């Protein structure tokens, strides 16, 4: 997949509306075909566990409206791409993020399309995928030289999201939810729990507090760890260990060459990703031990860049299909 070479109609510069939805926030931006964000187009709203379909509908509409006002003159909008925490329902084009329990069945694609039509004056499709899939696409797209052909994208934040690109193509599975490593069960941490319940930011904060730490947020945890607080360091180590072990297990099945990690909690310690990677060295398979694990090339922007890649890819497919139909 080479979205960087998507042809622009009438020779115009092409852009996409990108939307990223997570358990703490939702963001939008206009992303150009070279992967850069249009200055000023980034917008953000809070989400959280109390968010509902009724509150998110106008919030997402405001994101679309705000970002589209920064679409440069003469730039063609190819469509919209949405990366979201899952699970998603491909048929209904909706999402039910685990960390947004009151917003189950959010019809996000329809909401975005309606808002684009209201602001931009035309119907453009919204392409929906997991946030981890969008992240993996962003890395595949923007890696210079020979991009990794098979990789796992991980978003470690309020939750733990994942997505796959294999042999240069996004792999979404029969329902669109392939790569959800955060919902795999892990053992060795007391009660049976999912990876997300062990390694996410909120889970790590809860674990540190159970050890006597008195902070409240992932940012507090990071500051305490720098000061040498034993509980904070232990909680961060626990998260990295669980994530690394889970990556190794999935790699033995799927056989990817790279893991790219983004999300706020992945920056909780300067060596967090190094700690994650160290766990792979215990695996008996050489190809698993050889996997490259790195921070996203654009750790803050990659989720939005990946969402834009979804739109560019869909537009490229539509152009190819239309050409075939004309033939």
TrEMBL record:
Gene3D superfamilies the UniProt entry points to: 3.30.420.40
Coiled-coil residue windows: none
Stated family: Belongs to the ROK (NagC/XylR) family.
Cross-referenced PANTHER family: N-ACETYLMANNOSAMINE KINASE, ROK (REPRESSOR, ORF, KINASE) FAMILY
Protein name: ROK family protein
Species whose genome carries this gene: Cryobacterium cheniae
């Amino acid at each position: 997949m080479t979205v960087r070479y998507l042809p622009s109609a009438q020779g115009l510069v092409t852009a996409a509306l990108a939307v990223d939805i997570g358990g703490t926030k939702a963001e939008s931006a206009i992303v150009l075909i070279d992967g850069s964000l249009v200055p000023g187009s980034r917008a953000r709203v809070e989400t959280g566990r109390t968010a509902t379909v009724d509150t998110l509908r106008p919030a997402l509409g405001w994101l679309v409206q705000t970002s589209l006002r920064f679409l440069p003159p003469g730039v063609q909008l190819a469509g919209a791409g949405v990366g979201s925490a899952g699970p998603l329902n491909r048929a209904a084009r909706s999402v039910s993020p685990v960390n947004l329990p009151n917003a189950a069945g959010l019809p996000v694609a329809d909401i975005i399309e309606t808002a684009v039509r209201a602001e931009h004056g035309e119907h453009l499709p919204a392409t929906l995928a997991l946030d981890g899939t969008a992240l993996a696409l962003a890395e595949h797209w923007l890696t210079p030289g020979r991009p990794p052909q098979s990789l796992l994208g991980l978003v470690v934040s309020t939750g733990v999201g994942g997505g796959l690109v294999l042999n240069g193509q996004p792999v979404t599975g029969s329902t669109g939810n392939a790569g959800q490593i955060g919902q795999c069960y892990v053992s060795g941490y007391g009660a049976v729990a999912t990876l997300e319940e062990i390694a996410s930011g909120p889970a790590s904060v809860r674990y540190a507090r159970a050890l006597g730490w008195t902070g409240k947020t992932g940012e507090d945890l990071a500051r305490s760890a720098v000061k040498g607080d034993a509980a904070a360091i232990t909680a961060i180590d626990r998260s990295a260990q669980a994530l690394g072990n889970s990556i190794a297990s999935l790699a033995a099945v799927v056989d990817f060459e790279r893991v790219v990690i983004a999300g706020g909690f992945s920056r909780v310690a300067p060596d967090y990703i190094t700690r994650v990677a160290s766990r792979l060295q215990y695996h008996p398979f050489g190809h698993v031990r050889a996997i490259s694990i790195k921070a996203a090339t654009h750790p803050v922007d990659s989720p939005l860049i990946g969402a834009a890649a979804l739109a560019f890819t869909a537009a490229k497919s539509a152009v190819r299909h239309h050409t075939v139909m004309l033939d």
